[in-house]
């Protein structure tokens, strides 16, 4: 399936457009400002160019932000510092302004990207919470047949852990080679802990998420991540276990 961006364009094409704009817009801005060198202070030009950097970085593309920073510094030098229309600077103040422009632009890019990542994480946490609460509500109301709930939770677990597939199996795990995900987010196989943050989920075998009723295991979800290695965070792994826990009540009621 083609990864989509805005409208019907693929995301890769939008990245090309954004990166091209990150280079061209500072050029066009500096070329325009060069017609008003006597009326527009260098500090004002710097602020205008930083806006383009912020706009590029706000897309979440670090390359676009850095391209905008470098392009802004280069064209500020070319059009707005003496000697004009040459990549050279004769005045100390202009050297300082150009260096500060590039450094501030890079810093702004990193801050904008940090904010973008925090927003994505907050949105993801909200989605996880809604999934857990929605499942818990379905269990409490008892309006959803257990087999439907079991399938819904399987899809949610697969989505949270970025797995290829997930299915429910009644009873405890029978094979010691299958890695088991615990409530604290740790993953163990044959008594040994697996560093998921470093090596990802096992792609050569199943991973089990237990469904418990108290201390008794009433079933487990088996998931596979064979097509690509996934690195779910500890938070994602704990959410997967919480989702599985919601199923035990529905199974006991049937």
Plain-language structure description:
- The chain is α+β, with helices and mostly antiparallel strands.
- The protein contains seven helices and six strands.
- The chain has two domains: 11-119, no CATH class; 144-253, Beta-Lactamase.
- It has helices at 11-33, 42-57, 62-80, 92-141, 146-160, 196-199, 234-253, and strands at 165-170, 179-181, 187-189, 192-194, 207-213, 216-224.
- The protein has a six-stranded mixed beta sheet.
- Helix 1 packs antiparallel against helix 2 (42-57), helix 2 runs parallel beside helix 4 and helix 4 packs parallel to helix 7.
- The longest helix is centred in the middle third of the chain and has 50 residues, at 92-141.
- The radius of gyration is 27 Å and the shape is elongated.
Which keywords apply here?
254 residues, alpha+beta, Beta-Lactamase, 2 domains, 7 helices, elongated, disordered N terminus
Question: Brief overview, please?
Answer:
This protein is an alpha+beta fold. It is built from seven helices and six strands, in the order αααααββββαββα.
Largest sheet: 6 strands, mixed
Q: In terms of structural class, how would the helical and strand content be classed?
A: alpha+beta
> Approximately what portion of the residues adopt beta-strand conformation?
5-15%
**CATH 2nd-level architecture of the largest domain:** 2-Layer Sandwich
Q: Summarize the amount of helix as a percent range.
A: 55-70%
The beta-strand count equals 6
The tally of structural domains comes to 2
The level-1 CATH class of the largest domain: Alpha Beta
- Provide the residue-averaged pLDDT: 80
| CATH fold field value of the largest domain | Beta-Lactamase
Measured between the Cα atoms of the first and last residue, the distance is: 39 Å
SSE order, as H and E?
HHHHHEEEEHEEH
Given the C-alpha coordinates, what overall shape results? elongated
Number of helices: 7
What is Rg?
A: 27 Å
Order of strands across the main sheet: 1-6-5-2-3-4
Ranges with pLDDT <50 over ≥5 residues? Answer: 1-8
